[in-house]
Amino acid sequence: MNALTMSEREGEGRIMLAAVLDDGTPIIITQELSRESLHALKGKHHFRCPQCLGKMWLKIGDVRVPHFAHAARSDCRRMFSEGETPAHLAGKQQLYDMFTSLGLRTGMETSLNALGQRPDLLVEYDGRAHAIEFQCSRIPAVLVKRRTEGYEQGGVISHWIPATPEKWSAGGQPVRALAISEFLQLFIRQDSQYGKYLMTYDPITKHFFYFIHPMHISGNTFLGKLVAIPYTLQKFPFAVPSPADEETFRQYLKIYSTRRQSHLNRRVSYNRKGIRDPLLRACYENRISADQLPPVIGVPIPGAEAFKENDAEWQALFVFFVFGEKVKDPESPVVIRNFLRTVLPDKGDGFAAVSAYGRFLASSGVTCLEDILGCTELAAPSILFLWKEFLASHNEY
After folding, report:
1. Could you read off the pLDDT of 232-267 as tens digits, one per residue?
2. What CA–CA distance (Å, rounded) separates 63 from 1?
């Protein structure tokens, strides 16, 4: 079959890779089926939809992935809320071949009538059913949650695999900063032993791309390590990354600190609001320039993605709020909630992030503003605290 091109990521239509013959025999279009064998099959049989039993056509072009399509004006739409794309078809086909090559009983587009859902693949492993959803299109978060809960209620384990963003590449430095959309963030996995990671699949390169141990920088930008695995080397249950060790964390921290300083330099150099800017005003009132903030302000904290701006900004405002004219307890829930009334988070309530930063300040021995402003580098205990918090961080899914 011809290789899938980048331009073929987009497409429309209600098309499938599975059908049944008139006698009920299931047919699945796999990568092993040549166009010649499909033409022979087309000349001998009629095809019907496994769900509605309506007539289907076997389409065998020279460029797109061969597929079945409903006859015109078919109303078989209930389980097809999203249009198929060539990338989605190719991905399902490749993943189907991967699971069957592992010796696992695998169904393509199997209807779970009791649940009113149809996963891309249904895999049987260790006596349990596993629903595989290869998600190429963006759908509402509430729909992801609803489908996941539906599978859970039916005793089916769900696995969401988003398509790899086009800009991701296996070339370059493994540790890099990447933009992770809010939609992709829905699929960040949390393993109690190995930590956070995002697993995607690219049907063009036929690789799984793992973005492991993501560390929030600002907005939707995260620092992490990108690892590519050929789908022929994938296993099930899916491969998981090794835990982040302290050396890796220090490498992250070095890159994170460089980007933090660059951000603060830009904030000072390109300021257009003057003292109307909340950060610059707070720094001015405390007699410090924003580009000279000490390293204990602007550190990676679990849950920091609740704030759109760079971590140094909301952390500086919290420090000045807590250790201003009247010193307050940085770990106090009351103090944290009062602060969050003045600095509103962009996602969620932000309490977890501010609470974690309060614990960091306390563990670093900070009792007043002078302790912070006199700091020139992060002490070893502070780095150790951040590393442990990084390992213990979690993501709600």
Report:
1. 999 999 999 988 888 889 899 999 999 999 999 999
2. 8
